[in-house]
Amino acid sequence: YMGYIVELVQRWPDRFVGNFTYNPRFGPENGAKELEFHIKEHGFKMMKLHASMHAYRPDRALDLLRPALRVCAEHGIVVLIHTGEGPYSVPTQFNPIIREFPSVDFIIGHFGVTSGGTYAFEAFWMVMDTPNVYGESGWLFQSRIVEFAQDMPKEKLVFGSDSPPNEPGMWLRELEVLTWPPPQGMNLREEDLEGYMGNNMARLLGLTPTPPPASVGDAVAG
Q: Closest Cα partner for 36 from 95, 88, 94, 76?
């Protein structure tokens, strides 16, 4: 199930971080053991939950999630949650498991938005109200990004491309324009833009963040 990801992490450890897709339908305890194996043997740093794909309602399936979340809590693993459509991937459906594991950092994938639904305001208030919840920018409308980013703590937003099938550049552009003046932008500092584009994620994963490039030439070279 994770063979391709393991291959990428082993071949390019300086470019890829392993994210284990946890499917409780294989058996919660089996999945938790497999997650721990990938953490210990291959250095995986994240786990993904996709309730829509695996057909369970998160707020009514806590026993399916707890074994893997205990592993995440023990090893400092970040959890990425797919959200954006009903009936199984509404952001607030994950509130019970998030509250039960306050030491685990959770990222709301797609910021509650996909082609199937728009739950951006739910996601926003979860990010604002819950210390261990972060938002991922992919799929979020640019007008909402600039609106939310003005209120959110700067470390609470991370970049996401949902690629494939999406082209990453269009999502990067939605963050770049935050450095413009209003209304499309918010005069965002380059340092904060670097946080959105990668340094916030690096800090969550325990990796060393990088300073913003001093010039266009440095950016191209990097």
A: 76
CB 136 within 8 A of CB 111: yes
Mention every residue, 6+ apart, whose C-beta is less than 8 A from residue 102: 131, 132
- What are the mean pLDDT values of the chain's consecutive 10-residue runs (222 residues total)? 92 95 96 97 98 97 98 98 96 98 98 92 97 96 95 97 90 95 95 96 95 82 76
Residues 6+ apart with CB under 8 A from 180: 187
Q: Which residues contact 6 (CB under 8 A, 6 or more apart)?
A: 18, 38, 42
The Cβ of residue 202 has, within 10 Å, a number of other Cβ atoms equal to 16
Q: Which amino acid is at 1?
A: Y
Following DSSP, what letter does each residue of 166-197 receive, concatenated? S-HHHHHHHHHGGGSPTTT-----HHHHHIII
SS3 call for 131: coil
